[in-house]
């Protein structure tokens, strides 16, 4: 007797990928995530490739992973994929200190973030 299979977190026409511990604050990562929400996958990849934000490279890797999951694990059509969700959350925070005058210290918080990208197959492509 084995454990029951975990239910899927997303629908049958969706695939997801998660990027953990990305070295950026959630506010900065969310600016990049806003650029790709609701767009076609090809458009989103082009926007991330030419973005000036440093974290856009990591978001592009996560999006490419979601596309690969959709193609290989769920047999979805890559040409009809859309970024359904791009969710950003907090991860750990490294706490450091910076020496200041008169023996004082000032705190430095180096934040990390998580991102979850869900791609969905367009409805009209499913009907055909």
Explain what the structure shows:
By secondary structure, this protein is of the alpha+beta class. It has one domain: Alpha-Beta Complex (Ribosomal Protein L22, Chain A), CATH 3.90.470.10. It is built from 4 helices and 3 strands. It has helices at residues 26-36, 41-49, 56-72, 123-127, and strands spanning 14-22, 81-99, 105-121. A 3-stranded antiparallel β-sheet has the order 1-3-2. The longest helix has 17 residues, at 56-72. It is flat and about 65 Å long. The mean pLDDT is 94.
Provide the fold topology:
Layout: E1 14-22, H1 26-36, H2 41-49, H3 56-72, E2 81-99, E3 105-121, H4 123-127
Antiparallel strand pairs: 1-3, 2-3
Helix pairs in contact: 2-3
- Average pLDDT, to the nearest integer? 94
Number of domains: 1
The N- to C-terminal Cα distance equals 41 Å
Structural class determined from secondary elements? alpha+beta
Structural features:
flat, Ribosomal Protein L22, Chain A, rRNA binding, Ribosomal_uL22, structural constituent of ribosome, 3-stranded antiparallel beta sheet, RNA-binding, 128 residues
In short:
The protein has 128 residues and is of the alpha+beta class. The chain has helices at 26-36, 41-49, 56-72, 123-127; strands at 14-22, 81-99, 105-121. The protein has a three-stranded antiparallel β-sheet.
């Amino acid at each position: 007797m084995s454990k029951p299979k975990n239910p899927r977190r997303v629908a049958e026409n969706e695939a997801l990928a998660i990027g953990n511990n990305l070295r950026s604050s959630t506010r900065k990562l969310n600016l990049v995530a806003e650029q790709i929400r609701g767009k076609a996958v090809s458009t989103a990849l082009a926007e991330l490739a030419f973005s000036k934000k440093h974290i856009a490279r990591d978001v592009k890797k996560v999006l490419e992973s979601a596309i690969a999951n959709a193609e290989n694990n769920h047999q979805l059509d890559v040409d009809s994929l859309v970024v359904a969700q791009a969710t950003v959350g907090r991860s750990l925070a490294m706490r450091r200190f910076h020496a200041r005058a008169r023996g004082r210290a000032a705190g430095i918080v180096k934040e990390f973030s998580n991102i979850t990208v869900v791609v969905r197959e367009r409805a009209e492509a499913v009907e055909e």
